[in-house]
Amino acid sequence: MKAVALPRAAASARRRLSEIIDAAAKVFAQRGYHGASTQDIADLLGMRQASLYYYFDSKEAALEAVCLDGHQDYVERIRAIARSAATASEKVTEVLFHHAAPERRDFTLVFLRERRFLPLAARKRIRAFEVEYERAIQRIIEQGIRSGDFRADLDARMATLALLGLGNSAAAWYGREPAVTPQRMLRAYVDLLVRALRLSH
Q1: Which structural domains are found in the chain, ordered by start?
Q2: pLDDT by residue (tens digit) across 157-176?
Q3: 96: exposed, middle or buried (C-beta count within 10 Å: 0-12, 13-18, 19+)?
Q4: Quick one: which of 103, 91, 99 has its CA closest to 144?
């Protein structure tokens, strides 16, 4: 019985932690780090503030968890994309769609706006994931240049920054254009980016 119960308990704890991090991301995205409190996070979850401290001992720790979780998700996804047999254009499309996915918007906004309030050691931990993610995107673009899928004169680093800029701007613009759905915006962004990467074709 114990051998079965322990994995179930661990899985339940992981789900609960994920729910708490999601709630923290929503609160920080809406209120900002300085405008938010651990009570706000607890209220959103319908739990006591004291119970929240079982998972995070401070608001700062919750912010770091949100930033790390967001970037770990990006890194894990891009590793899978990079291993696939898809073309470079297809991989770039997948990366941009995942990066700007509406369900990850809170994490993206918190990372962009609030991580600066973390202490240096925490920012360095997060930066390690950020660097891995950027390098993985650049390798996909370099693959496309070598294969002839992308222009031979393309600057892979600048193309990487362009992709990140488009993905990040999508998070900021959601909801500002009432007639534009997230999917429509992403399709337009992907079309613009891939056309630019393959301009000479």
Answers
A1: 59-197 (1.10.357.10)
A2: 999 999 999 888 888 877 77
A3: buried
A4: 91
